[in-house]
């Protein structure tokens, strides 16, 4: 039993090490890419200010770009707020449905236990086994 446990633990540690290494590498690459995206954004703002300063004063051109950035930021915050509110509504609805289903199952089970206790025990064991076999693990939910 000892060598089997040692082999399984080495396998788990190897998988975790590879995953951690991949996450670190991807994080570093995203950081570097974000730096270049930010640089491109800054240069685009400078170019926009230079272009607009041909039609307006430099101060007015800068203020126009600032207002456009502010409006875009507020739109994004509004979208995030709406999406979070929708997620909260969906979660509350799921919670209400789950509570209603649980109440119905408990009421049905209590009625069945009073009238036919042996049949109810068999159904409970079968239902528990079926639910245990059909239930997804926590890792499967994260992947889908």
Largest sheet: none
Number of distinct beta strands: 0
The end-to-end distance, rounded to whole angstroms, is 35 Å
Shape: elongated
| Rg of Cα set | 29 Å
| Count of helical stretches | 4
- The share of residues in helices is over 70%
What would you call the structural class? mainly alpha
**How do the SSEs run, as a string of H and E?**
HHHH
Query: Which stretches of 5+ consecutive residues score pLDDT under 50?
Result: none
Mean pLDDT: 82
Oligomeric state, counting identical vs distinct chains: single chain
**Percentage of residues in strands:** under 5%
Describe the overall structure.
The chain is mostly helical and 144 residues long. 93% of the residues lie in helices and 0% in strands. It is built from four helices and no strands. It is elongated, with a radius of gyration of 29 Å.
